[in-house]
Amino acid sequence: MLEISNISKIFKNNEKDVAALQKTNLLINDHEIISLVGQSGCGKSTLLRIIGGLEKASTGFIKLNNKIIKKPSSNIGMVFQDPRLMPWLNVYDNIKLSILNENKKQQKVKISKTLQKVGLENCEKLWPRELSGGMAQRVAIARTLVREPKVLLLDEPFSALDSFTKTNLHQHVKELWASLKLTIIMVTHDINEATSMSDRILIIQKPEKKDDKNTQIININDPRSDLKNVKYNELIKNSIFKEPSIKTL
Amino acid sequence: MNIFFKINNNKLYKLLKSLYNLFKAKFSQPLIGIILPVIILLIWYFLAVTETIRNSLLPTPNEVLKEILILANEGTLFSHIQITLTRVFYGFIGGGIAATILGILTGVSPFIRKLFDPTIQALKAVPSLAWVPLFILWFGIFENSKVALISVGVFFPVYLNLMMGIRQIDKRMIEVANINNLNLFQTIRWILLPGIIPEWITGLRSGLALGWMFVIAAELMGASEGLGYLMIDGQMTGRPALIIGALILFAIIGKLTDELIYLSAKPFLKWKESLDTMQGGANNA
Questions:
Q1: Spatial separation of the C-alpha atoms in residues A68 and A111, rounded to whole Å
Q2: Which residue of A has its CA nearest to B170?
Q3: Selected residue of B179, B188, B200, B270 to mutate for chain A interface (largest A Cβ count, 10 A)
Q4: Which uninterrupted H or E stretch holds A61?
Q5: What torsion, rounded to 10 degrees, do the Cα atoms B229, B234, B240, B245 define?
Q6: Rounded to an integer, what is the distance from CA B67 to the centroid of its chain?
Q7: Could you tell me if A138 lies within 8 Å of chain B, comparing CB atoms?
Q8: Which of the residues B118, B151, B211, B225 could staple to B95 if both were Cys, CB 3.0 to 4.6 A apart?
Q9: What's phi and psi for A201, nearest 5 deg?
Q10: What pLDDT, in 10s, does the model give residues A88-113?
């Protein structure tokens, strides 16, 4: 279980403090797919980066299976919006970056297995410039999965892809989630993506009122959630309600 | 019989085609580069032979070749080339090492950049010849002052390219290193070094080109050996063939040393989409 407890993040910007997250609490069960949605600047990517260990929280802590996480952990992998492949490394070496400390034989076995999982066998020697957008993103996913993480963080990884590639990759990620028993936390702006992929959709909302100082996390799927004050695009809200959101394999 | 010929013809055709392709791949690029020098040579030959320009100002290519061969026969040509090459080599190593160290430091640390960069940028504007009196005063008239002058020429392009290369490293790549738990050594080996090598190589090539320019300045100022000295000797004794011969030797040796760096760097840059772009960029610098 992933426990996000009392997390705040204050960025110092020209001596002015900007709060990205304030006292945020969330529990995520093992083998769950969560989508985080919300307006730009609400702090969803910041939350993901804090879970990944790329940002330090100003207050609070994150626990994975009762162990506090303070820095990037091998149990948590992250795929970014852009593939971030090193242009000077071929596909094999890009994936190898995640498992540099293992011996060559292990690396070879793991990389070849992972490439098979993401449907890129025989692409080991290709350079990043020779890959399509979808292939590059699959290499990025392979680079993360090769470490066999328990939690996979996806920061809008499909946003730059065309709808056909996107649908294929959704299916692929769900298959990987099922076969590897992953816990997935995904940040997205695409509500269809969220509804088709997730067990739970959580809207992150910045505190609006002066007396309300906490970042709100509203579970769309929970009938007890008070959605009256959810400040989010009406269209998105409607599409969430029209479509049943829990879709699991 | 006809079928036999047909097969053989097909094989012959394939063989000729593959030989043509090989020739095209291996030799067409260098041959394109030779076209312009050949045209210049022909125009020069025409102007000199028809005496459109007086022979005392523009000797024929034959006369220039003859002058070079005389020097070679005397045994002095190679010692002139050797001494110039040695000066450029030491200047290149000295300037290159200093620029690499300072380029890394200013690229990595904003504080060191703020401390050093304004002064270095100001010194960059000082013309090469302006250093000569000071270096002669400091290092004497012999080799040290010449090597110091060449080092100054090499320093600036290497320093600037390396500093900019480090500053332009994509921070998102460093995040990939962090999320994958790479240690400092692994981050340098797999991300920083390969990321800055293209800029560093471009800097080294531009630095070498400036090194060749500065060696002339160094040798024009009181040298008794070297290709620059040959030019002064040619001027003093009224031998334009010697001046042009030394010029051509400068161009050929300069190009060869640049090619040497380019070829040594090639294995590190094979990931680049177009090496030609980089080569062109460096040559233009």
A1: 29
A2: A84
A3: B179
A4: strand A59-64
A5: -40
A6: 26
A7: no
A8: B151
A9: -115, 125
A10: 999 999 999 999 999 999 999 999 99
